[in-house]
Amino acid sequence: MKYVAIATTRLMGSLIYERDVLVHSLFMLVALVTFVQLWTATYAATNQSIVAGFGLRELVWYLVVTEVIGLSAPRIAQTIDTEVRSGDVAYALARPYNYPLYHLAGFWGETVLRAPLNLLVGSAVALVAVGPPPTSLPGVLATVLLGVGAITLRGTLEILVGLSAFWVEDTQPFEWIYNKFVLTIGGLFLPLDLFPDWLAGIARALPFASMAYAPARAFVGFDWPVVGQLLLTQWIWLGVCWLAIAVVFGRAARRLVAHGG
Fold first, then answer.
1. 70 close to 212: Cβ distance less than 8 angstroms
2. In 1-17, alpha helices (H)
3. pLDDT tens profile 42-62
4. Which of 49, 163, 36, 10 is nearest to 100 (CA)?
5. For the chain, what are the domain ranges?
6. pLDDT, tens only, 58-68
7. Which residues neighbour 55 within 8 Å (Cβ) at sequence distance 6 or greater?
8. Among 20, 86, 113, 210, which residue's Cβ finds the most Cβ atoms within 10 Å?
9. C-alpha to C-alpha distances, 44 to 40, 55, 56, 222, 235, nearest whole angstrom
10. CB 114 within 8 A of CB 72
11. Could you give phi then psi for residue 54, rounded to 5 degrees?
């Protein structure tokens, strides 16, 4: 399949820049060590071992999962932005593949390389700091399933942000806003279970939680009804986002042809 070949080619190309991969893993190490120190001090200061169902061990392993997903994803929105600005997108559209799927395949190719290394680093830190993960075989399987959906959804939103370059001069503000939503109400740094109930309910219904909170929550607190709801929400947003891509990309292609691109 050509998209598998595209992903494989991007993976092999990333191996050439092994320093970039190592830098991401080093950042993973620094970030997790910092979080472990922060939350160890926080739990000690509050004299509580469990907060909203999360002990220190659950919280650290939750952060391992969210950071692996967050730090393993490449910034393809900027790649699309550059192609549109330079005019290279006209050549890309003439090739025998679907342009959004091409970038999603490349996104997965780079992520598949980075994620195992980040997981190895993160797991080593967590094992030393708090011991083995509080999970089960169903929890691991659910995490893998939700993790695949989370990475795909993240790549999908990156493509949507990148396609906005057909109408705006700079897509970075949109990417910055989108990333901040993932960091905050997406549960990247803090489980939504620690939010006020009204805010947690809103956050769970948005796509950002499906990219961070969902797989991490399944890993440290597996529950069939919860996982089922997380999967349903995630796949609904995947469908909505790909429908949006079809509409936006169709208009973008017509705009390019109309302007003689």
1. yes
2. 2-16
3. 888 888 777 777 888 999 999
4. 163
5. 2-258
6. 999 999 999 99
7. 43, 49, 134
8. 210
9. 6, 11, 10, 26, 39
10. yes
11. -110, 120
